[in-house]
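Protein chain data
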Amino acid sequence: MLTRLLRRFLRPYAPQVGLIVVLLSMQAVASLFLPNLTADIINNGVVKGDVGYIWRTGALMLGLSVGLAVVAILAVYWASRTSMGVGRDIRGAVFESAQSFSAREMNRIGTASLVTRNTNDVQQVQLFLQMALMVLLLAPIMGVGGVIMALQQNVDLSIILVVVVPLMALFVAVMLRAAVPRFRSVQIKLDTINRVLREQITGVRVVRAFVRTDSERERFDDANRDLTATTLSVNRIFVIAMPGIMVLMNLSAVAVLWFGGHLVGSGSMPVGNLIAFLNYITLILFAVLMGVMVFILVPRAMASASRIQEVLSTRPSITDPAPGAVPVALAERVAVEFRGVSFGYPGGERPVLDGLSFSLDEGRTTAVIGGTGMGKTTLLNLIPRFFDTTSGSVLVGGADVRAWRRDDLWAIIGLVPQRAFLFRGTVADNLRFGAADATDAQLWHALGVAQADEFVRAMPGGLAAEIDQGGTNVSGGQRQRLAIARAIVRRPRIYLFDDCFSALDATTDARLRAALQAETDAATVLIVAQRVSTIMGADRILVLDDGRLVGSGTHAELVSGCPPYREIVASQLGEEAVA
């Protein structure tokens, strides 16, 4: 997964990678040439007492070292720049994939996990790539080149490498085998702690209201301890990595000096060559050490890449028509029709909606009412195609919603969801989600229709007043009215109101509905509501019971002829309302 992911996203950066390879090759060649000069300066300068040779060779070594530093800086710069660019591209791709997901994919993967995958997981891959570009390309050149140069110094002494290098490779392989599954577990447990923290932050009022602070703190502590224990188990594996490698490096140096000293004493090897050989074996082992530093990041990067690839390879269950399909032409009249619509959630025992057939006419207001869990919101969500029907079809403007490009369909819909959500920014920023080019006058008009202009004028800055994320600095009723105003700014052909009047008092509710009626007189309007008082004036009321349509008509018609509706009215308005 890691290789496939990097191959895909590194392709546009091929020139930069090529440049990095050239720079690292130059750095490796210069590093391998320096010990040879050290041997020359000792054998031909120090031993022979040739001071001029020492100065000339020393100056060459100094110039080579300066050039080596410049090349190293350039290599690090381009490696960092490339890895950051790849990280940016991966985050963008994960975001685009998540944006295309339907509710089904979002529920399967989970919001907390998607956040973790687009932040922490991408960061792990990015960190590995940065180290790989800087080290993983350099280490093999240094290792192989060091072996060749060491053999040139003395073949007999090179037997030490035959023992040391396989030992280090075995040591690294054992560590990776133990670490990979643990790193996968760390990422999963990071998802868990993010989910728990998200729930506790967003639900803090509920936690406090039910005096569950201690139990929620304990739940977070359990998740935190679990993550900590797993992370520590991984770190314990790598705690022995550096000391173990350093022991092997130091033992190798001792062995070189021990056996090399005998060779120098017997005249079989010049002392300069011994020093050069010691430098080369240090370079070889340092290359292995650098490789180990990268391989320490491999398990976590592999686990993260697998999770990222899962998001990128997930195909949304709801997609636009195939490229080349003729787009749906916007009709003069945009009515909505349900034809034998049934819908069931995956894994559900029975359908939430069963065999619904009705139409929503342009210029008329249709309301949907029913008990909790009867499928009212699900019905509404089928129109903008947040879900696809299990059977039957939903038509907008005479065309099946599956034939519409989703952007075109959403462009003619103004949705006010059940839970009014506002974004961090100003009041104007939030309203212009409906229409980016809306003027201030249009914004104030929408606020007036939504009965929100009065409290917005009272806010510091008016339209420029700041709104916190989620709209937590305004009341529930104010959030609902701002969400309604946002839909009005859009001036859509279809209005979908999903129980968005529940936090309003009766007076505000009545004024808002009266203003909306004038504003939406040419549009198709669907209102999902729990309160009878909100929908009594609708042109037609649909009554849902257990996912089936059990009543359709005006308020008066349903009171006289629909028992389920009579029960709802009696429970809310009293028996005298149905007498």
